[in-house]
Amino acid sequence: MVTVTGAAGHVGNTLVRVLLAREERVRAVTHHDCRALEGLDVDIVQGDVLSRESLEKAFQSTDVVFHTAAYITIAPDKQQILETVNVSGTRNVCEAARICRVRRLVHFSSIEAISDEPHDTPVDEDRQLVQSHSRGYPPYAHSKAAGQREVLRAIEQGLNAVIINPTACLGPHDFRSGLPNSSILALADGKLLALIAGGFDWVDARDVAEGAIQGTETAPSGGHWANLEQLAQIVGEVTGRRIRLPVLPMWLARGIAPHHRRGQPDDGQAPAGHTGSTPATPRLSQCEPRPGSARTRLCPPPAARHSRGYPEVVWETVSEIEVFNGLTVAWFVMSAAAFVVLFFTSAPYGRHTRTGWGATLPSHWGWLLMESAAPLTFLLMFLIGRQPHSPAAWVFLGLWEAHYIHRAFIYPFQRRDRGKQMPIGIVAMAFFFNVVNGYLNGRYLFELGPEYSTAWLLTGRFITGSVFYLLGFAMNRQSDMILQGLRKPEETDYKIPYAGLFRWVSCPNYLGEIIEWMGWAVATWSLPGLAFAVWTAANLVPRARSHHRWYQSEFAGYPSDRRALIPRVW
Predict the structure, then answer these.
(1) Residues 270 and 82 sit within 8 Å (Cβ to Cβ)
(2) Which domains, and CATH codes, for the chain?
């Protein structure tokens, strides 16, 4: 049995995945957030590095313990919690490992624990640790150095342990958006205004995991140093963008950083489950590289192992985000194109059915096939998403499914046009739309977007959006019911509706649906939600115009004061 503390963090859950790939039995110690481990075949236990009793329970029958849990921040005002978690917590881990007779402890320290000086030589494990009296180092560096001394002290007392000093970890499975990956994504998304004249040592979290596992017997070394200009160039190569940003001198960056941090949310990272804060700037090196993907003070390092190249790591870090963002932008562009096309050509289904569009199928089956893609795709995104299933997430799921379960599985069989046909091509295009739309909205809400807490349900945006959503849903349903009631079961001809909102517009059902998805965009406050609202208008505004003109041409006595979509306006 292998036990991993901080198993829900970026390095921790990456290590768990590598261990599982080696068919190891893994016990994952987590504090409260387990979403990074969902779907993995691991024994999840609740634990806290501040409770030695909980650690002793977690370490029972364990051969090797990987201690990745830590509080990570370079903010200057977190000294107390840093010392509590990173020093006292590490002391508890060492003591629990000794009591439980663990064969080996692998302690994840940090490159930050090692002194910068002298600046003109590469850093390795022979460099002294940051001293308690050393100036110019953030509290995080002092806490990691002190935690490493706790392990060294335990080694002197007989504990079999290895210490590794990872640098900035990149790669997938970072569910808390740590600073290294956030920097990559910010570069990819064009959110940075400038770079800093400095660099850092970057390493793939999977290489750190592999090195740590080797550290149970021997201890490898390796890593890649790159300045921020080089990193931006690599991101540009992966994303196909030309990234050209001004490079600020270090003295100016250090002057700006404290002011930049003011007013920023305290939304950091803590593998142990303790809340941390994102640092304004890491401790950058302006001179020599700081190699250290895996370091030890117990074993001489063998030849550096092969590790992943930067482009591969960056691609796997930004790939889905880039695809998602690109698809969202394309969705807006396609909606504009669809609006232009539909303004001059009516989609050939319903009252606008015509020949020349290929094979057809009964319209009610066409409705079911094309609309069912939306609730099923959205539900799948909910089930596989790593965001916690908070009350807000359940509410969003309920709102979406309420519309589409009715639209896909009830509405088609309430329609009294069983003899009508629908082109298979139209069904296929609508099916594609609903899959992409369900993916964009569901993936954003349940995986890629910010976590919606229960407090979101009390915000003005959610309340306002929900009111419009429910209003639009009611308008749409009432109008559909009025249309369905115009015909007797055996009738197939069209009639002029007069009840409800039909007194003012020809297509209140379309108006209701546009209002409904505008409400959705506000309630979710998301670009995918806005894209859906724009698409809905791009599709239904031209179709309402076509309906209105059709009514006018088919019925000589059609009310002259009735508008197409907006009462008394249009």
Answers:
(1) no
(2) 2-309 (3.40.50.720), 345-456 (no CATH), 459-570 (no CATH)
